[in-house]
Structure formats: structure tokens, C-alpha cells
Amino acid sequence: MRVLGLISGTSHDGIDAAVVDFEEDGGAVRGEVIASTSVPYGAELRARLVAALPPAQTSLAEVCELDTLIGQAFAEVAADVAESIGGVDAVCSHGQTVYHWVDGARALGTLQIGQPAWIAERVGAPVVSDIRIRDITAGGHGAPLVSFLDELLLRGRAGTAAALNLGGISNMTIVGDDRVVAYDIGPANALVDAVIVEYGLNPLGYDEDARVARTGSIDDALLQAFLADPYYALEAPKSTGKEHFHLGYVREHLTALGRDIPVADVVRTLTELTVRTVAQDVHAAGIRYLAVSGGGCRNPLLLDGLRAALPEAEVVLADELGAPADSKEAILLALIGWCTLHGIPAIVPGGTGAREPRILGTITPGVGPLTLPAPIGGIDTLTLTEASSS
């Protein structure tokens, strides 16, 4: 079964897509990544999306319009990718998170938009979507769902290993001693991106190659103020998002400091914030192998900072696990879609805090009858490879 995974993450910069061709034999699942791409949002659509996100006020009319426009953007990417490889059997779309409702230590709701019916209509294949809420109804945080893939890829590795994703928010899955723990650590690219966009420092909306951060210095007082955030002291499982870590959050800290700080110093300090918060948790968990993915792994200052702060750990890109770092989350979505269609729960309870595993998502039929494959008991092993032509 060829499944196309689609996602736009907490950086809100575009749509990642990956097609995985899955084969299963007695619980052993092999997945070949046969296509992958990343397509930026159009400038106007991204501006409207960012303007509607918390803490900004918006209207139901704007939410409805964005739901359609983002759904159409996802459908366009899906149709192009599917056509390039001669079609797909199914699609799994994460859509775009616009709100993640957390109250204290509990997640109560989550909202992803990007109407999947547009994808089903363009591609003609069934679409699995709205994948996070089922985990929340089972007591989980709906995040990090990537812990399901991480556990399969890290399973059987000696010692304590972890997979780190540096998207808008940093999250980590820790596997060792017959247990799995996963949670959101804090901001990775979210705050840096917000400052870059606010000051117009890069039309791409992020600190490319850490060019801005390299020209600045760490402001220790500002860094300590950021590190004092109570979120970091919460016990896992926990989740967060741009509802908490946004441009207004940075402004509040700058105002409280009571002095002007060069914008390059702010960017450098926020980059160091990610290094410090991640390194602190890696140290505490006794991790000796760390596989990194997400946009932040392409930031040399961030990745070099982690390696310098973690001399006791082997820090590698997720490519070594068979999941290319730039398309890992899209691969996850393809896997979740395949699991849902085969009746397999795609939750690791230790990864999200859910009481029990659950089958995720809602299915939108394609243009023909919806015919589901026979259910499969589960996945014992997962092997990922990348096609040489992708």
C-alpha cells in the first residue's frame, strides 16, 4: 500500500509530503520512501495564517476560509506528488495546527485545519485526518505523536536512546529500560522565527544557517528569565505550542528586562535557550544516543551547540535510523494512515500519556467505495529505506 503523508508543523512555513510504500509480513513492516518534498505556503496564505494564530483574536469566518484555503493547498501538493509516482492508495493529512488547548497538566482539545475533503476530491483516494484528538480523549496530550515512530526505530537499541525533533517546538522520545517517555521540551524554532519575521530579517521567515544569531551575543539575564518559565519544571507527559511560546512572550520578557537589546542578541539568546533546555533534559535522562530531525537540525549553531553541550552522547541525524531528517514527520503521517486503515493503534501510551493505545483519525472516502484491508494485529518491527530515485 502506497500512503502519502502530509503535514505542516508548528513553524507554519509550508507543507511536507512523503510517500511510503508499505509491505507487511507476519508483523514485520517494511516501508520504502519513494517520494518526498516540501512546498512553502504562498506568502499571502502564510501571512493570513500567522495573523490568525493565538494570541491574536480571529473570527469563525476567518477560520472557515483558512480551513478551505489550507485544504486546497494540501490538495494541490498531494495531487502533484501522487501524479509524479503514478498514484497512491491513501493519504494521511495532519493539516495545520491552529490551537492546542492545555490546562495545567492536561490537554483538553486540539484543532487542526485544512479540510481533507479537498484532498480526497483531487487525489481520489481515501484520506485519514484529524489524528490527534483520539489520543486526547484517551487521556493523552495528542503529542508528540512521533513517539510511535520513534519507539519502533529505536526499539532494541542498547542503553538509553532518544529521538529529538526540532520544529517550532522541540519534542523528544526516550526509549530505554523497557519504557518509553515522550514530551514537548519547549521552543525550538518558534520564537526565533517569530522575531525573524517581525523584524523582516529574512524573507524565508527563519534564521537561515544561523546568520543572524552568529552576529549576536547571548544576553545572560534574558536567557535566565526565559529559563525560569514554569513549563520546564513540569513532569512528562506534557505538551505546549505557540499558544504559550509566541512573539508576545518574547516582548513581555524584553519589557520586563527594562533595557534595549539588539535584535541579533535576542536571536542568539533564543537559539541558546533551545540548546540549554534540550541538553538539560538529555543529561537528566542519561541519553547516550540522540537522533535529531526537524528544521532546527539544519541550523548549524543549534546542532553544534547540542554536540558541544552533550559530549557524552552520540548526536546524529535521524537519517541513520532510515527516516530522513527533513521528511520524518511526513513519514510518520504515512505510517499513521497505514495503521489506521489496517486497524492498528498508532499510540505509545508512554509517549503521549494516553491510558491505552487507540486507532487514530477520521477517514474521508475517495471517489469510489471505501474498502478497507483486513485488520493486522500490530507491528513487531519496522524497517525504513529510501528509494535511490527519491
Write the layout of secondary structure elements.
Elements: E1 2-8, E2 14-25, E3 28-40, H1 43-52, H2 60-84, E4 90-103, E5 106-113, H3 116-123, E6 127-129, H4 133-137, H5 147-154, E7 161-166, E8 169-176, E9 179-187, H6 190-198, H7 211-214, H8 220-227, H9 247-257, H10 263-285, E10 289-293, H11 300-309, E11 314-317, H12 328-341, H13 349-352, E12 362-364, E13 381-386
Parallel strand pairs: 1-4, 3-13, 4-6, 7-10, 10-11
Antiparallel strand pairs: 1-2, 2-3, 4-5, 6-12, 7-8, 8-9
Helix pairs in contact: 1-2, 2-3, 6-10, 8-10, 10-11
- Overall number of structural domains: 2
Q: How big is the Rg?
A: 20 Å
According to CATH, what is the class of the largest domain? Alpha Beta
Instruction: Kindly state the percentage of residues in helix.
Output: 25-40%
β-strand amount: 25-35%
Give the termini separation: 17 Å
**Secondary-structure content class:** alpha/beta
DSSP summary: helix tally:
13
Architecture (CATH level 2) name of the largest domain: 2-Layer Sandwich
- Which oligomeric form is depicted? single chain
Give the full name of the CATH homologous superfamily of the largest domain.
Answer: ATPase, nucleotide binding domain
CATH topology of the largest domain: Nucleotidyltransferase, domain 5
H/E element sequence: EEEHHEEHEHHEEEHHHHHEHEHHEE
Main β sheet profile: 8 strands, mixed
Number of strands: 13
- Ranges where pLDDT stays below 50 over 5 or more residues in a row are none
Q: Quick one: overall form? A: globular
Pfam family, one: AnmK
EC number: 2.7.1.170
Family: Belongs to the anhydro-N-acetylmuramic acid kinase family.
Keywords: ATP-binding, Carbohydrate metabolism, Kinase, Nucleotide-binding, Transferase
